[in-house]
Design goal:
This protein is mainly beta and 124 residues long. It contains one helix and eleven strands. Strands 2, 4, 5, 6, 9, 10 and 11 form a seven-stranded mixed sheet that branches. It has a four-stranded antiparallel sheet with strand order 1-3-8-7, with no helix packed on it. The longest helix is centred in the C-terminal third of the chain and has 4 residues. It is globular and about 40 Å long. The N and C termini lie far apart (37 Å).
C-alpha cells in the first residue's frame, strides 16, 4: 500500500492550499482516511478524518475540509484561512477498519498506512 501526498508549499497568512493524497494497493473506497500533522519540535497531531463521518480537530474546524474521490483513489484536504501555527509536515494516513468514536479517529496509532508527508509553511 502506498500513499503519496502532494500540494504543500509556502503561503501567506490567510491563504489557501489543497493537499492531495493518491492511494494505491488497497480498497480505498472502504478505508478510513485521515490527515495528521507534525510541527518541528512538537508531537504529531490529528487534523481531520473521513470514515463513518468526517471529524476535525478543533483548531482547524471551519477552515479545513477533508474529502475524497473514490474513483481517483484520492484524498484531499482543502485548507483555508491558513495561520502560521498551521505550519507543519502533513501526513496522509489510512486504515482498512472503521472506528467507533471520534477519539479513535484522532489517534495516530489506529492507522496502519502512512504516507511520506508534505511540508506546509505559512508565513506571518
Amino acid at each position: 500500500v502506498q500513499l503519496q501526498a502532494s500540494g504543500g508549499g509556502l503561503v501567506e497568512t490567510g491563504g489557501s492550499l489543497r493537499l492531495s493524497c493518491v492511494a494505491s494497493g488497497h480498497s480505498f473506497s472502504r478505508s478510513t482516511m485521515a490527515w495528521f500533522r507534525q510541527a518541528t519540535g512538537k508531537e504529531r497531531e490529528f487534523v481531520a478524518a473521513d470514515g463513518r463521518g468526517t471529524y476535525y480537530a478543533g483548531s482547524v474546524k471551519g477552515r479545513f475540509t477533508i474529502s475524497r474521490d473514490n474513483a481517483l483513489n484520492t484524498l484531499y484536504l482543502q485548507m483555508n484561512s491558513l495561520r502560521p501555527e498551521d505550519t507543519a509536515v502533513y501526513y496522509c494516513v489510512g486504515d482498512d477498519r472503521s472506528f467507533n468514536t471520534r477519539t479513535a479517529y484522532s489517534q495516530p496509532s489506529r492507522y496502519y498506512y502512512w504516507g511520506q508527508g508534505t511540508q506546509v509553511t505559512v508565513s506571518s
